[in-house]
Amino acid sequence: MAGRRDVDADLSDSAALDALREMLTGEGVDRIVISPARRCVQTAQALWPGRAMAQDARLWEQDFGNWEGLPFADLPDLGDLSRAELAAHRPPGGESFDDLCARVSPALREIAVPGVTAIIAHAGVVRAALGLGPSALGFEITPLSVTILRAVPGHDWSIACVNRVAG
């Protein structure tokens, strides 16, 4: 579990990175905003070497508190929880998915400016960005995948795609 732990990115699949870089080049990215997590910084620098990037601390992954660093097998069994109950659950010393959504939503509204903005962040941030509340917990987010959201004036987002991978 590596929500707030500042771990390195796994950039060992150079072919996947090259394919993703090529795909993103075709998107005409005007601006790059990243989570300050080392894994996001390293990924963004690998995709856009030398480009200017803004960091936004609100894009950090969910804080799993006392669960940080635990192997998934050692996480407590929460029993049968609905998605709404799971979204509201706070790990000891951490934040809930609902808390994450409350933190990420205003950041995304501020980041949504005319043009194409790439955001390099975490699976939880992507789920929060979908604007689906607890239902977003049903989405698996693939590493090095692209989710495309379009800002709709007067509304939140239009979800164009989730988990698009290069290649």
Brief description of this entry?
This protein has one domain: Rossmann fold (3-Layer(aba) Sandwich). Helices cover 30% and strands 14% of the residues. The chain is built from 5 helices and 5 strands.
Structure overview:
It is a single chain. The protein is an alpha/beta fold. It has one domain (30-164): Rossmann fold, CATH 3.40.50. The protein is 30% helix and 14% strand. The chain is built from five helices and five strands. The chain has helices spanning 14-25, 38-47, 83-88, 97-111, 123-129; strands at 31-34, 54-55, 117-120, 146-151, 157-164. It has a three-stranded parallel β-sheet with strand order 2-1-3. It has a two-stranded antiparallel sheet with strand order 4-5. Strand 1 (31-34), helix 2 (38-47) and strand 2 (54-55) form a beta-alpha-beta unit. It is globular, with a radius of gyration of 16 Å.
Major β-sheet profile: 3 strands, parallel
Write the CATH homologous superfamily: Phosphoglycerate mutase-like
Shape: globular
Structural domains: how many:
1
CATH class: Alpha Beta
CATH topology: Rossmann fold
Sketch the topology as an H/E string, one letter per element.
Answer: HEHEHHEHEE
Give the helix proportion (percent range).
25-40%
Tally the helices: what do you get? 5
Side by side, the strands of the main sheet go 2-1-3
